[in-house]
Amino acid sequence: MGLLFGGLWIGQNINLLPLGASANAPIYDELFKVLLTIGTILFLGMVVLVVYSLIRFRRRPGQTGDGAAIEGNLSLEILWTAIPAIVVLFVGLYSYDIYERMGGMQPLNHHANDASSHEHFNSGNGRIWGGIGSSSLATPQQSAAIPIDVTAMQFAFLFHYPKGDFISGELHLPKNQPVTLRMESKDVIHAFWVPEFRLKQDVIPGQPTILNFTPTKTGRYPIICAELCGPYHGGMRSTVVVEGAEEYQDWLLSNTKVSTSEK
Amino acid sequence: MTLANSSSNSEAIQKLQPTGWMKYISFSLDHKVIGLQYLVCGFIFYLIGGALAGAIRIELTTPISDFMPRDVYNQVLTLHGTIMIFLWIVPVVNGAFGNYLIPFYVGARDMAFPRLNAVAFWLIPPAGLMLISSYFITGAAESGWTAYPPLSITSPAAGQIIWIISVLLLGGSSIFGGINFIATILKLRQPNLKLMQLPMYCWAMLGTSILVVLSTPVLAGTLILLSFDIVAHTGFFNPSLGGNVIVYQHLFWFYSHPAVYIMVLPAFGLVSEILPVHCRKPLFGYTTMVYSIMAIVILGLVVWAHHMFTSGTPPWMRLFFTIATSFIAVPTGIKFFNWVATLWGGKISLNSAVLFSCGFIINFVLGGITGVALAQVPFDVHVHDTYFVVAHFHYIVYGGSVFVIFSSIYHWYPKFTGRMLNETLGRFHFLLTFIGFNLCFAPQHWLGLNGMPRRVAEYDPNFAFINQISSLGALLMAISTLPFLWNIIWSAFNGGIAGDNPWNALTPEWLTSSPPPIENWEGNAPLVTEPYGYGTINQEDLVEPTPESPSEESSQ
Ligand code: HEM
Ligand SMILES: [Cu+2]
Ligand SMILES: [Cu+2]
Asked: What does the alpha-carbon distance between residue B70 and residue B81 come to, in Å, rounded to a whole number?
């Protein structure tokens, strides 16, 4: 009992995650809470069982002889086949539900075609695979997703905005607007990770990948390369700036001007 | 090849083997000598791999890259992973204990193919030395133990090629070993010994060897293709030549997920031998344990893509591999409950062997729980390739396999040497290791969740404090090897005389002298059909190696 409540309390009250800043972050955190609760109960239960047995059944000084010759017990063994089976079944179904709410089951090629105003993505012919889809919040306005092309190389991310046709080293995104990142690598495998978005997608040479999401909180968050890509892998970082619609438009315009006047 | 115990010819050959300590550096055909060769050789590599880990943890005490150059850091990281997996855990849980114990357990006088066995061992030292010397000559490989292309194709070629050759040799050694174990267990068993009467470690080794034989060749083929890409500029995995980098990942993990079971199934087997002896109780649920092992073997072959959830795998594949992976928790869970049931109601000696085994249970349960979490795609897309994964697999391979190796050394050292280890030092060793280990790896879960990727030499300064705690844990772990080393060296000369069977165990390796004679038993091999008959088999029967008359001795 105490174990159950202890697990529940820990699951509900201990926060191990960073700030959540995308539409699927709260869904993720919900899953995390459930997993942490179940995990804590199982782990503490096992620790208690082991430690209790070691103390209760330890050999006292001078004691001889053997323990009881119990070789098995069918109903007990059925019980503890059932415990992990039920837990795993529950966790599996629950995480499937979470995955669906995050939009993971939507066909990504469909998104890709929608958004493929950009030539080289048309040539992907069905080899465009992707990360998790956009979350439920984004589903209604799919067509409104902002397309951005991400190029990863040793050791930087470049963000190309088709709208203004310019390249930025920082990713700027408007709040509450779905985004589609269309990513490809120039050299080795990298990975695009924003811990605050709870999202990660490898950026692969020769195989474009897609990542859909919706940022929901303004702020500056780190973009981290998560796949070993060479000596400066640890330094391969950038920043995503989530801002209000107006600031975003201003930023977009100012950059568009600069890049056209430079030409 | 001749079967060892079927020809007198092989006996003659054994007589020609060197004796004394010389035999341990010779091409000995004695399975016990080979087993100890594996053990000592593996332990030396463990010390080297541990020193590399120390270097990594020193680098990570500060958020900037200041202890060694960045490319050297990646070399150290690659060497650490490769050494720990291919030169320490795999050879020791399989080669060392397998060679030493399996012939005893099946009632044979040696392995099925003694020469192949010696060859398998002697592939290891040159492969290991080559791998390590590559650091000094050309610079070692720097693309991680996974060697993902195109990084492994574009980074300096010499080190990568040497890495491939060493891993191929080690894989070959492992396959030879696997074939030998399968043949020994199935073909050299005493005629009246049924499969379902074998000690659990035999089943674990049978399952593991099946995995080795099925999956290692795939790794070998993959690495050969990779080496073609590097030296001959073929385009199997090179995207700039039309190759596909994802195919490499599928092939690599088709071996390397089973490889994690190659590291842990034998450990499961060893724990199943150790606990009943010191709890004085039969192993609980023998039959379900056997079926669990086989279920793990089968499931273990179809879960590899859970390492590739962010590699652009299509949704159906993500789902399939989530489900398959989660279900491995069922047979695994059964085994853990059965071990606890073995403890329950026993008369447990709280010695070092038991402590390390119970430490293993606790650590592994945590690693298994994070494993099931990682198997869930939506969870994994956040923490994949972060320190959370580093924590997960160290809980499994260190908290699991390495704890079991220590437990096994405490348990079988009297048999290996004829002398007892010092218990106080042993418990001290356990305490330091357990605290150090948890201090080192538990905080890494948090690091991963909060944004620290793995395989980096520099990181967000906000993580510095937690990294320092982790490094402190690593320091404790390093210190904890000192009492152990002292203990095994000092006790070899000064330990109390063990006698044949200091633990009053029932399995056949204890029914002979310590250390055992060349042919394992002076007379006929005993037929042990109840290796776990504690509480039913009379203690006196242990003196004579004919434990075939269960008497009425009750268990009070
Ligand atoms: C309950 C059983 C287990 C489950 C469900 C499980 C699940 C997983 C998953 C899903 C990953 C991939 C995480 C990622 O990279 O995002 C992983 C990684 C890993 N697991 Fe486990 N695991 C289990 C047991 C084991 C065992 C028994 C071992 C070894 C003895 C092991 C060793 C590893 C290693 C070495 C990695 C990291 C490989 C790498 O990327 O270098 N795991 N595990
Ligand atoms: Cu990178
Ligand atoms: Cu795996």
From this structure: 17
